[in-house]
Amino acid sequence: MKKKVLTVDDSRTIRNMLLVTLNNAGFDIVQAEDGVEGLEVLEESNPDVIVTDINMPRLDGFGFIEGVRQNDRYRAIPILVLTTESDAEKKNRAREAGATGWIVKPFDPSKLIAAIERVTA
Amino acid sequence: MDMNEIKEIFFQECEEQLAELESGLLRLNDGDTDPETVNAVFRAVHSIKGGAGAFGLDDLVSFAHVFETTLDCVRSNKLEASQDLLKVMLRSADVLADLTAASRDGGTVESSRTSGLVAELEAYAKGQPLPSASAAPAPAPAAAAPEPAQAETPAPAAEAPEPTDDSGFQPVPFSFDALDGDDDLAIEDGRSVFTVRFKPRSDLYAKGNESVLILRELAKLGDLQVRCEADDLPSIDMLDPEGAYFSWLIRVETDQDEEAVRHVFEFVEWDSTVEITAGADEEAFAAPDAQGGDQPMAAVPFDLSLLEDVPAVSAEAAAPEAPAPAAAAPAAAGDESMAPPNLPLAAKAIAAEAEKKETVVPAVPAAPQTIRVDLDRVDRLINLVGELVINQAMLAQSVVENESGGSSAVNLGLEELQQLTREIQDSVMAIRAQPVKPVFQRMGRIVREIADMTAKQVRLVTEGENTEVDKTVIDKIAEPLTHMIRNAVDHGLETPEKRTEAGKNAEGVLRLSAKHRSGRIVIEIADDGAGINRERVKAKAIENGLITADANLSDEDIDNLIFHPGFSTADKISDISGRGVGMDVVKRSIQALGGRISITSKPGKGSVFTMSLPLTLAVLDGMVVTVANQTLVVPLTAIVETLQPEKSDIHSFGPSQRLIAIRDTFCPLVDVGNILNFRSDLANPVDGVALLVESEGGGQRALMVDAIQGQRQVVIKSLEANYTNVPGIAAATILGDGRVALILDVDAVVTASRGQPLSPDMMLAATG
């Protein structure tokens, strides 16, 4: 069974890169442009893992992760944070919000896939 | 989709982000204190950096990074967004745009420009207390990424020693010699042994991590022996199903270093205790044996084969040799001993069964829904609608011709069709309508650059930037607008010293505004500079032989001299205004768009350039007229009124000039048929109709035509693209009866009537 990945990122560039990379690796993909849409898409798509950006309009990655964790259905879903922030402060905040792990941008395909496989059963 | 296409998307996105960045900075400059504005600005730079990183555009990344760092200080209120800082940031935005363009089109940006700004930005970031970031341990994720050696990872369980007792564990034969030398941990072929003690806390599971997955990841590094310790497992009635009660003792034999082992725990190091020691800890593994078999649950060797679809762990290999130790344990330990590996999974199941609660979504305003459509598709639609309009007109005409009297049902239907066609056309045009904002925003940068180069202080004020106009027009106004803005700063505004002398604010104001006016867009560029120096303009024109020394010119005429080809009032040719590329070029390109430009100037108060452009280059409301048996279309926007001349209104003036008296004023009469060489003699005005038109200079002319056929919207077909440029004719169209009609270029005809020959690059008649 294909694993389904929900990606949440406001950058069209990154969304397309994720789409291509994950498609090539044999994942199903659903995408959202910000945290608000991410929570909406989450409800209808039932993904296995989430990859989200931090800096987004309307609802940022921290808020999105908190929102996901508050949803009983998804409070244990693996969430990877996709961000250029490699500094500890941002990572800490993401972790506190409930992120499972992170991928530092710019990511290469193998790094992204490895991280997703790492957190999914 | 391949990477090149994504790169294309990236550059498109950069354009948008750069526009967002600039408008955000300008809002901040105007005193906007909304934190979301700073956030949006930050996101724009951040987004560019992120994408640039993905494409290895290092120059762009490093500059964006410095910019972002300073913005982050502002965002987190560690740095005040002072006017000075915003100036630096606006210039940085310009450089960022240049770097983006350089990355896209090739080329470079002078390193002096970037390095100077980098230094300034960094100084700002450092000038304030720096955030205490990077205090917490930040594992180097990029560098330490493990190379999952999936291809040749031996199945750990298969190599694991056969379990011989209830605990299912037997230490491997191990040479203690290996421990003698501190740095000699190698067993064979550079493989090392590490002992890992891993004790998860419940937070680890709450964040979606799972111990089993960590073990699986670890197994990718090499051979594992795993023991699950359940000392802390409470009795079932005390058990929190989401608690963390197990710890793991792991022996890893790998050809990778400790860093690689540690990296496996990267995501969980805060939510667990992880101890990694080099070498094997035989004692620890042996401990359960010493405790005897009465505590079978205290330490359960963990069979990795329980993890499904882990390529590195072969279930077939493990099962026959090692009779599933973990599976054997429950016999002695009771059902809950199955819990360790499955605990998080169980938690998930519980979660799934739990009543679905409503997700808390912060209330946010809904963003307008948009789609991106290829412009070609819209253009095709516009062309088709154009054909539809023509077709509808033809249908209407043939009905009129064939049905004398006409059935009211058909006529009613036709009327409705006409209305619908018109609505479809308007809607389709609206798709292509865009606010002039992006163009106006670009002007901000032009102003800053020229202000810097000329050492003038300029504030650009924009108004009506949401005024919409067809994309075809937008694409074409940027260039003339740029020239006009440059001219306004370079020639219009004075230096700060001169301004202060004149009692003005040292900072000059340039006002750029757009508005709709009677079916056209009017763009004004107003400066509060010195105004046109008419003495100098006149002297220059005489010097250049444009006018004679004794020419008697009105102020308006003198002002209009600056649109004359080759006219430049700057004493020396500056970099900014260019070489001979002046207002004449501006005027020509605006005219080519069916637009007009005019200037009004007040000495000491400043000048206002007004350009008026059609909202679209695709359709036109026109008056269909007959001239010497030819059908012509006169743009309705040019016509002030129509009138039937009486013989007594017509007066001769000189050998060929005629004037018409209209309510106390005299207006030159222009015979269109004669001007266009449709006929050589002059028509008798009394037999025709006069169209009173307003020309760009503000003067009125009466155009004589033979008859008016009617008024209708026509689809513009370019003559230049399909045939060739014809003087006096702006374009062509197809009428309802299928015939081609020419669209009159009113300004050109008016100009020609002043004695200038009709020529494609006809310019202002300076001598009036």
TrEMBL record, chain A:
Record flagged with keyword Phosphoprotein: yes
InterPro entries: Bact_response_regulator (IPR050595), CheY-like_superfamily (IPR011006), Sig_transdc_resp-reg_receiver (IPR001789)
Native source organism of the sequence: Hoeflea alexandrii
Alphabetical UniProt keywords: Phosphoprotein
Protein name: Response regulator
Keyword Phosphoprotein: yes
Domain of life of the source: Bacteria
Positions carrying 4-aspartylphosphate: 53
Domain Response regulatory intervals: 4-120
Span of the signal peptide: none
From TrEMBL, chain B:
Residue(s) carrying Phosphohistidine: 46
Low complexity biased stretches: 131-161, 317-333
Organism, scientific name: Hoeflea alexandrii
Keyword Phosphoprotein: yes
Pfam families, sorted: CheW, H-kinase_dim, HATPase_c, Hpt
SMART domains the record matches: CheW (SM00260), H-kinase_dim (SM01231), HATPase_c (SM00387), HPT (SM00073)
Residues in HPt domain copies: 1-103
Domain Histidine kinase intervals: 415-617
Protein name as catalogued: Chemotaxis protein CheA
Task performed by this protein: Involved in the transmission of sensory signals from the chemoreceptors to the flagellar motors. CheA is autophosphorylated; it can transfer its phosphate group to either CheB or CheY.
Keyword hit for Phosphoprotein: yes
Domain CheW-like: 619-755
Chain ranges passing through the membrane: none
Record key words, sorted: ATP-binding, Chemotaxis, Kinase, Nucleotide-binding, Phosphoprotein, Transferase, Two-component regulatory system
Enzyme Commission code(s) on record: 2.7.13.3
Region (Disordered): 130-173, 317-340
Database matches in CDD domains: CheA_reg, HATPase_CheA-like, HPT
Catalytic activity annotation: ATP + protein L-histidine = ADP + protein N-phospho-L-histidine
Class in the EC hierarchy, top level: transferase
